[in-house]
# Entry
Amino acid sequence: MTTTTATRLEGSVILIAGAASGIGAAIARRCIAEGARVVCADFDLDPATELARALGPSAAACQCDVTNIDSAKSAVDFAEKKYGRLDGLVHNAAAPSTSATVVDLDESAWRHEIDVGLTGAFLMSKFAVPLIAASGGGSVVFIGSQFGRVATTRAVAYCAAKAGLIHLAKAMAVDHAPDKVRVNSLSPGAVATTRLLRRWPDFDAANAGLGPAHLLGRIADPDEIAAAAAFLLSTDASFVTGSDMLVDGGYATR
Ligand SMILES: NC(=O)c1ccc[n+]([C@@H]2O[C@H](COP(=O)([O-])OP(=O)(O)OC[C@H]3O[C@@H](n4cnc5c(N)ncnc54)[C@H](O)[C@@H]3O)[C@@H](O)[C@H]2O)c1
# Structure
């Protein structure tokens, strides 16, 4: 059967961890536009609730700290109670990046970045995968980074978390193919979200500073990442599992 992008997620329920802002919010908007029902889960409940309200009756919000096993479970339970099924999980959450080498990075900062970025994906998957399998199969997408593929300066925890995420997706793809659960990572290059504004005064400055490192000469719009995530969540990607999709404007190519 031919579907269009306007309807290809019709009937699907997608849980997005770290949905309140930036790329997560763009993925939520895109999933709704393609016909899905969405749970916007985030550590920050207020912006997640505001987003769900703006998205309309097919969206709901819940508080979720992906580093806490009970909280991860309760987000999946919330999706099941609300919609009775789960077809997709997106782990998008990441802590604010630290800027340090192994020598000057605090142990607690290392643990927090790994906890949110990598252990969070494990905890969310631990509860989401059985529900996705029980719903007939579906898709798990981890939002990685080009820095899971190539290294950069003073970002040891971020690089390690993202590299771990890419391989966690592959290991899960092996384990859960028999359950019809596809697992992939999606690795963006620099994207115009407030995360960049911690280092750059505005998006023009971020684009001028970071754009040239990408073959396409610019940073991405969050919607460009959301389009790729929606593809991986949909049955258009029915033969895609265990892959890391680079959506990085060619950053990691040279
Ligand atoms: N913006 C970029 O340039 C860029 C580039 C490559 C990869 N990424 C990745 O894309 C993802 C989204 O990035 P973004 O730029 O939209 O960042 P963002 O900071 O706007 O979004 C991260 C979201 O995660 C949530 N979060 C943080 N800790 C959490 C926790 N413990 N539990 C639940 N939610 C938590 C935050 O509240 C926030 O809503 C991240 O994984 C990031 O590493 C971003």
